[in-house]
Amino acid sequence: MGGFSSSLILFDGVCNFCCFWVRFLIRRDPGKRFRFAPLQSAAGQETLNRLGLQAGSLTTMILVEGDRHYTKSSAALQIARRMRWPWPLLFPLVLIPAPIRDLLYDFVAGNRTRWFGRREICMVPAAELKERFLD
Length: 135
Known about the structure:
Radius of gyration: 14 Å
Structural class: alpha+beta
Strand order of the largest sheet: 2-1-3-4
Number of helices: 4
Number of domains: 1
Number of strands: 4
Largest sheet: 4 strands, mixed
Mean pLDDT: 83
Strand content: 5-15%
Shape: globular
Low-confidence stretches: none
């Protein structure tokens, strides 16, 4: 899968739901294709600035690959596409127009902290996973 070797996922580091998904992805990414950075971190903020995105982007997961980036449902589907089977089977959902896909994404994103709670501080990766996270 050329071109996919260096993927950075920005996520809300104080959102329990987002941290669950990061752990979910790590367990299913033995090839270590994905690296991670909380949006609140220096690396996350620097990446947002480089991409010309606002701090308001804290409501979405962002997949960054070189100069390209994906947000909301597009990010989720691009990530699924890069995972091991069976997750790439979700990628054809990209044929649904993004505004329609993003309605569901925005509904979950808008309720995630109410349903799953927040942390007081950003997710701190275990020592064996530290190399997967940007500071």
